């Protein structure tokens, strides 16, 4: 589905992404791991159009999408979430979801004058869709709560819900588990698995929690210093000497200690 070929992103003399190449298969839940500063989030930002690449190419289903704007990628079904959730804090959770689909009838002055029935019909449909999404995520009790007043983990669920309001093909999740308690993290994991199996979503997940990665992801890709270091199953990645070196800068003599670090 997604092919990244020799992608790079430089900030002055710093090479945040340095010739990274990888492929994301349709229907997969792919994990992206690596030590802090490995270039994972920058890679996401370049693929998702938040940053322009310094070099290289990104294709989606064979189409060159290199350098497209986020809104253009959104309409192609490529979405991303962020480490810190971005919600409309003064609006309810239901309203946050209803805001997602583009080209709504109420956005044009003409329809506000002459298309009120169309606007009302569309709002009823969006409300029903939003309630369906909230129920799917098991947070229907939060429908009327202000989004700014719910917990960090619930905000992550709400971000996941936004991807369900449109026809998402591939979703990039950036540290979905950051600051989330274990119960909510399990709920998020359940939702990701269901979206993958029941609705055919493809996911790419940046996460430091290896238990979460191990439960959801196959394959797992490890980055270090802006490059793709290794790819395989999580056990293969955890046993890879280059990966161990990247995390702790040690060799085989400290392999047990390093493997314990990669596992956490």
From TrEMBL:
Recorded coiled-coil stretches: none
GO molecular function, one term: ATP binding
Keywords: ATP-binding, Hydrolase, Nucleotide-binding, Transport
Chain segments annotated as transmembrane: none
DNA-binding recorded as keyword: no
Gene3D superfamilies on file: P-loop containing nucleotide triphosphate hydrolases
Keyword field contains Hydrolase: yes
A GO-annotated cellular component: plasma membrane
Domain ABC transporter, first and last residues per copy: 2-250
InterPro entries in UniProt: AAA+_ATPase, ABC_AA/LPS_Transport, ABC_transporter-like_ATP-bd, ABC_transporter-like_CS, BCA_ABC_TP_C, P-loop_NTPase
Domain of life: Bacteria
E.C. designation(s): 3.6.3.-
Protein name, as recorded: Lipopolysaccharide export system ATP-binding protein LptB
Organism in which the protein naturally occurs: Nereida ignava
Gene name, Swiss-Prot/TrEMBL: lptB_1
């Amino acid at each position: 589905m997604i092919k990244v070929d020799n992608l790079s992103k430089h900030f002055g003399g710093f090479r945040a992404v340095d010739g990274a190449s990888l492929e994301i298969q349709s229907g997969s839940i792919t994990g992206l791991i690596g030590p802090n500063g490995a270039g994972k989030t920058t890679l996401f930002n370049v693929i998702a159009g938040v940053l322009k690449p310094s070099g290289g190419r990104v294709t989606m289903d064979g189409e060159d999408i290199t350098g497209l704007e986020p809104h253009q990628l959104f309409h192609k079904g490529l979405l991303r979430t962020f480490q810190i959730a971005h919600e409309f804090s003064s609006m309810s959770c239901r309203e946050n979801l209803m805001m997602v689909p583009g080209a709504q009838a109420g956005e044009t002055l003409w329809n506000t004058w002459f298309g009120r029935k169309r606007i009302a019909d569309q709002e009823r449909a969006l409300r029903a869709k939003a309630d369906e999404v909230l129920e799917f995520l098991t947070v229907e009790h939060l429908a009327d709560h202000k989004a700014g007043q719910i917990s960090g983990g619930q905000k992550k669920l709400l971000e996941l819900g936004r991807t369900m309001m449109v026809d998402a093909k591939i979703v990039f999740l950036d540290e979905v588990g950051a600051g989330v308690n274990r119960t909510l993290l399990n709920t998020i994991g359940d939702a990701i698995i269901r979206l993958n199996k029941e609705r055919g979503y493809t996911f790419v997940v940046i996460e430091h929690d290896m238990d979460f990665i191990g439960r959801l992801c196959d394959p797992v890709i490890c980055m270090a210093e802006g490059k793709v270091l290794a790819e395989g199953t999580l056990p293969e990645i955890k046993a890879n000497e280059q990966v161990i070196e990247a995390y702790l800068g040690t060799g085989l003599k400290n392999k047990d200690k390093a493997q314990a670090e990669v596992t956490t």
